Amino acid sequence: MTALVEVENLVKHYPIRSGIVFRHDVGAVRAVDGISFDLEQGETFALVGESGCGKSTTARAVLRLIEPTSGSIRFEGEDITTAGASRLRALRREMQMIFQDPFASLNPRMTVRGILREPFTIHGLDADGKVEALLNMVGLLPEHAGRYPHEFSGGQRQRVGIARALALNPKLIVCDEPVSALDVSIRAQVINLLEDLQAQLKLTYLFIAHDLSVVRHIADRVAVMYLGTIVETAPTDDLFERPSHPYTQALISAVPVPDPNRERARRRILVSGDVPSPVNPPSGCRFRTRCPKFANELTEAQQQRCIDEPPALVDRGEGHPSACHYAEARELV
Amino acid sequence: MTEPLLSIEDLRVHFHTDAGVVKAVDGVSWSIGPGETLGIVGESGSGKSVSALAVMGLVEVPPARYESGRILFKGRDLLTADDKERRAIRGKEISMIFQDPLTALNPVFRVGHQIAEVIQAHEKMGRIAARAKAVDLLGEVGIPNPRQRAREYPHQFSGGMRQRAMIAMALALDPLVLLADEPTTALDVTVQAQIMDLLIRLQADRGTAIVLITHDLGLVAGHADRVLVMYAGKVAELGTIDDVYYRPRHPYTLGLLKSLARMDQRRSDRLQPIVGQPPSLIRVPPGCPFNPRCPFATDICRQEMPPLEPKDGPDHLAACHHSDQLALQQSPAAS
Amino acid sequence: MTDQAVPAAPPVGEVTLEAGASGFGGAETQAAAVGGITRQTQFGNVRRRFLRNKLAVVGLVMLTIVFVTAVFAPIIATHPPRAQDLNITLQGPSAQHWFGTDELGRDVFSRVVHGTRIAVTVGLASIFLALVIGVVLGSVSGYLGRAWDALIMRIADVFFAFPLIIGAIMIILVVGRGVAPVIIALGLFSWATIARLLRSSILSIRESEYVEAARSLGASKWRIVTRHVLPNSMAPVLVYAMVSVAAAIVAQASLSYLGVGVPPDVPDWGNMISSGQKFFGFKDYLWFFPSMAVVFTVLGFVFVGDGLRDALDPRLR
Ligand SMILES: Nc1ncnc2c1ncn2[C@@H]1O[C@H](COP(=O)(O)OP(=O)(O)OP(=O)(O)O)[C@@H](O)[C@H]1O
Ligand SMILES: Nc1ncnc2c1ncn2[C@@H]1O[C@H](COP(=O)(O)OP(=O)(O)O)[C@@H](O)[C@H]1O
Ligand code: SF4
Ligand code: SF4
Ligand SMILES: [Mg+2]
Ligand SMILES: [Mg+2]
């Protein structure tokens, strides 16, 4: 396996501006603050974390829908952060996106046919017969082509969005919470569709979600994000069975499972308070203000290290990288 | 089950719209006893919220119409009671929290002030005493610096804190029943765990009965005593969580449990979705509403609505002509 | 997608399953039945919602009357509008002269009918001009942003700060009286709000996921603006323009009334009200009928504009 995408030290800061006449920066939202990961050809790599931790920002930077502040993104070895407009246009055929909100991601004034022809028109390709093939591929009917988005249910709209992403035969698809907005009974249909398409078309997925259950099912590898950084990354089963970062542990323990006996037996690791603002993240380890380990298990000297020294994302003998000075695997599910 | 505190009997709430009659709640019955937690699950539009709003008298009439049914609180029917009696019960004995706390909190008043007002509306209490109680309540629901926070406005609170403030407001009058409509859907899982932990603690202290409305089957498994599964405005199944999760007697319940991705299990081959999609409540299929999606459906299912009947035991009800066939199925919840 | 094998997703419509299947793991997992969703076109929806609004329908009828009158003015009018007859000056309404005659013996009814032409022409043409300016500047401002946005919005502020009438008078003082100067003057002082409205609606639509989707497909800026942004942001602008026509008609009449609008011999409601007011208190029909014509036309545009706004708002489905 070779890496399709290599992200290195990606940083995206959104400046906070102030002043009406003389606008000046008064700070920055540190949405993504130095993250690195690789996407292997044909795999599903999941980014998980709570809202605002920088998942969508990362996704959009990888597709260069936003300009990263610094860092490099290589697609098939080529640094795309420096690609010019025409090169970028050509690259667009290789990477596509599926959006979270099936109601907001389709132009309400275009028919499904218009929506699905657009990728071909933009790239000067022949669209004959393509719309029907795409609809068939995502489990819709040819006669759906003449309809407007509002005439479809959420699940069907999401299929249209998937069809649009597939149109140009891309290698990489970034899925930003593709099933979060769907009903429970529809979710599984769309997940299966994504899996089938991946097998048939050899797609690579960057899969963004906050629902850990879906991630466990669909992902090959997972990275957990907190306040703009990756705190732990591992192959999926490894992460769920031996999480070693206190945040990952809290996250996993907080997800309820639909099994009453198991729920009664489970122990929750509660974290206190809310996520701090990404404008002023805490010094040292960003999770320390909420970390149950920091609060309950560490000596004062150990705590001082969490406050002073940002923990590196390295393997501390737990089998996979974890950004905690005192990483220690636990079994939680 | 002890004597019910609040019960709904054969409730039908229909909305008369231009497009047709939306049968949002169509013959729903459930009850809840003191200190109990009843989970209500079902997909979007299945009538969960409308049935709770009906209890609170928050369904707008028109477009809505109560076609039939009773809502009994301690034996008194809220639908026929006079205004004074209703006001005394709703808000004081029964209160409600919502998915989006911003809709329930008034943006232009300080949080403490709003809670104090709720208290004064129902209890003879001076302004200062009410304010002090509001601060105590904010402290009780885990808001740090309650004194100072009481003087802030809702937008100054984070999502989790707003939900806490709304819970404080709902509990201000020590209600016997708390209707919680997707109280954690808008929150991150770690904050959801905090809020559920808070609700359980308060329930243990005060013996409040909680109706927990959600679409998360996991949340119900961990927190409810009994669960009601709704489909297309009707009750599909009702029973203890062990009965419903381990011995489901309605194909919809079974289908939901089978379709879930599980965080606690290694990857299975494929998910097993329920085919098709939920019906529009304007055109519910004749017979059993689930029949177009049901793998067990036969002719009778397309003709006759199955009655909600006891299965296995008196407290496990399901509305299905063929629930005996499900007894042979292994429930996916048991692991 | 060129010559890829299309995966074997079963073609599905309404899904029916065989009874007694052993669970839910059917092959139909990709089935997306289209149950219960009726075929409705966007236009059909808007029309249905519009026609449901009684006031809007009344407005539509009023506007139809106005337009028919404007087009067929020479046929509807009973007398030539400029024909003077000094023998019958200042006569009250009669079978001969339905709205009476003015101090030069001209038939008031015929002048009101012909005045419709001026009002409608000036109203529509000036707002059309404002739309052209407003849409171009608003799109540039909203879509290109940065320095363009700042510059255009400051200019808009200047135009916005001037009362319509005062601004128009200034222009007319420079270029002189006449129908065309009035149209230009009113257009120049009406585009600012249109540009602002469009800009703010573009700003929100620019952030929408479907615009992002188009960007991720590699669509050019031009394509994004013309295919995605403008079609979705024009609705509030058109509604506003509809109501602005009413404002322009009032302004047009006011300019004439103040003696700086169209030349005095032109049959125009503002002119008629202005000369009629001399007889306020005893020959009230002179100013009453043209005033009613203004009110009638203005209400027509306002009712229709209001109805359109509600009909175009998808939240009020
Ligand atoms: N004011 C109203 N007018 C018309 N229909 C309504 C109104 N309020 C609710 N409905 C309809 O009643 C049905 C049930 O709605 P309800 O809000 O109870 O669903 P729910 O189960 O709570 O769904 P969700 O999970 O999305 O909250 C839906 O079809 C909804 O569209
Ligand atoms: N355009 C923007 N301007 C300013 N801040 C932004 C912008 N987009 C995102 N952010 C901020 O960046 C952080 C990460 O956002 P995002 O990547 O969307 O999070 P996630 O997808 O993980 O929920 C959040 O604090 C968010 O408020
Ligand atoms: S480094 Fe310290 S504060 Fe950070 S997660 Fe580890 S123990 Fe907690
Ligand atoms: S009654 Fe028939 S259609 Fe309905 S759930 Fe039971 S088996 Fe399925
Ligand atoms: Mg996001
Ligand atoms: Mg609801």
From TrEMBL, chain B:
**Keywords, in A-Z order:** ATP-binding, Cell membrane, Membrane, Nucleotide-binding, Transport
* Any single biological process term in GO: peptide transport
What SUPFAM superfamilies does its record include?
Answer: P-loop containing nucleoside triphosphate hydrolases
Where in the cell is the protein located?
Answer: Cell membrane
Can you name a GO cellular component term?
plasma membrane
Q: Which residues form the ABC transporter domain?
A: 6-257
Keyword presence, ATP-binding: yes
Q: Which Gene3D superfamilies match?
A: P-loop containing nucleotide triphosphate hydrolases
Q: How does it sit in the membrane?
A: Peripheral membrane protein
This protein's major location comes to membrane
- InterPro entries in alphabetical order: AAA+_ATPase (IPR003593), ABC_Ni/Peptide_Import (IPR050388), ABC_transporter-like_ATP-bd (IPR003439), ABC_transporter-like_CS (IPR017871), Oligopep_ABC_C (IPR013563), P-loop_NTPase (IPR027417)
GO MF, one example = ATP hydrolysis activity
A Pfam family found in this protein is oligo_HPY
Name the family the entry cites: Belongs to the ABC transporter superfamily.
Q: Which PANTHER family match?
A: DIPEPTIDE TRANSPORT ATP-BINDING PROTEIN DPPD (PTHR43297:SF2), OLIGOPEPTIDE TRANSPORT ATP-BINDING PROTEIN APPD (PTHR43297)
- Protein name, per record: Oligopeptide transport system permease protein OppB
Q: Which organism is it from?
A: uncultured Acidimicrobiales bacterium
